[in-house]
Specification:
- The protein has 176 residues and is mainly alpha-helical.
- The chain has two domains: 2-101, 434 Repressor (Amino-terminal Domain) (Orthogonal Bundle); 112-174.
- Helix content is 56%, strand content 7%.
- The protein contains eight helices and two strands.
- It has helices at residues 27-35, 45-52, 56-64, 72-81, 86-95, 112-123, 126-137, 147-174, and strands at 2-7, 14-20.
- The protein has a two-stranded antiparallel ribbon.
- Helix 2 (45-52) crosses helix 3.
- It is elongated, with a radius of gyration of 21 Å.
- The two termini are 28 Å apart.
- The mean pLDDT is 88.
Length: 176
């Protein structure tokens, strides 16, 4: 369930929250409504479209999933205006043909504490993976019996990459 917020114009306090249902599972709608907690204009598509410099109809199509692929310029603008950098990562991992084949790590905005714990836990094994990688590649040939080990090393470094992506998302969102 997603809520849209209305604030008291004098006190700035939330006076009413309403449920949005039609597009509530859409990431663009979710990002807009999350941004509405800090800017009342985003409670409506009209207000958001004005801030984004696009038509209300275009935003409606994006939020209702009626557009096969949202234009990259619109995603960049929504990410910036809504302070939702996760939209960029989502676009790159889901909608971009290069990212969709796994060349970009999917990431979510998480708490800095969780990100730090996961990062530190993963980094404990860097030396081990580095040594294993050096052992495999030192002769310039990757034998068939080394390929499974190399795949595990790549998987480990993908986890490191995942942690870095989550840290970057947190930083983009919180260090503006």
């Amino acid at each position: 369930m997603i809520l849209a917020y209305e604030r008291d114009s004098w006190k700035g306090e939330i006076i009413m929250a309403k449920t949005v249902t039609k597009a509530s599972n859409n990431v663009y709608c979710q990002a807009r409504l999350a941004a509405a907690k800090f800017n009342d204009a985003f409670n409506s598509r009209e207000g958001a479209a004005e801030h984004l410099g696009i038509s209300k109809d275009a935003l409606t199509k994006y939020e209702l999933g009626l557009c096969k692929i949202v234009p990259v310029e619109a995603v960049v603008m929504m990410a910036e205006v809504y302070n939702a950098p996760e939209l960029l990562n989502l676009y790159c991992t889901r909608d971009c043909p290069i990212g969709a084949v796994g060349m970009v790590s999917a990431a979510e905005v998480k708490s800095i504490e969780l990100i730090t714990l996961r990062m530190l836990n993963t980094l404990r094994d860097v030396e081990k993976s580095k040594d294993e990688l050096l052992e495999i590649v030192q002769d310039g040939v990757i034998d068939d019996d080394e390929k499974p080990q190399l795949k595990e090393i790549i998987k480990f470094f993908e986890q490191v990459e995942q942690n870095v992506c989550e840290l970057k998302l947190w930083a983009y969102k919180n260090l503006k």
